[in-house]
Amino acid sequence: xxxxxxxxxxxxxxxxxxxxxxxxxxxxxxxxxxxxxxxxxxxxxxxxxxxxxxxxxxxxxxxxxxxxxxxxxxxxxxxxxxxxxxxxxxxxxxxxxxxxxxxxxxxxxxxxxxxxxxxxxxxxxxxx
Length: 128
Hints:
mainly alpha, transmembrane, transmembrane helix, coiled coil, membrane
């Protein structure tokens, strides 16, 4: 049994045993916290730079899209102005044609009355 106890003790003592003080533990914790803080800061800076680049790319895309939409708007406005001019011209033409139709209808009415008068005068005997 003594051999067995000795082998267990030998196995336990075969590993490296480090004695630390509270001061060493605190210093180690501070180093790990500092490393964690620096890593988080670097990560945040990298994230911020990446977001800024993405924002710059998105801004450039929006500027390009805005310019394309402005050009399309100018083309559409020019097309609208042409359509409005065509509509105004059509309206003026229609009003003129309606006026001419009224004049021609009145002339037609007068000519029919004259024709009826001439026909009625031709039908009457001349002796009367």
